[in-house]
Write a structure and sequence with these properties.
The protein is mainly α. Helix content is about 50%, strand content about 10%. The protein has helices at about 20-30, 40-60, 65-85; strands at about 10, 30-35. A two-stranded parallel ribbon has the order 1-2. The radius of gyration is 15 Å and the shape is globular. The termini are far apart.
Length: about 90
Amino acid sequence: MPSDHGDRFLIHDRHRILSQPLDQQVRHLGLRVLKTPVRSPRANARCERFLGTLRRECLDCMMPLTENYLRRLLRVWVRHYNEGRSHRA
């Protein structure tokens, strides 16, 4: 993870592979670790649904060749997702 990242949080579930030492290392990067609630599959499902939508609507039709291009592409798509796209299903 680059040192100039703009990320503030790392969200993960409570799987045993994601251990305390990993959480400590992530905190040293300046990120706050947020864990999904115990026995709440819907919390993780929201993330999975968003990532699936991102992949289908944005990344399946584009091939970013550099990290800068990917960041720019995601910034534009997130703005469209939050402001210009209908969220009524």
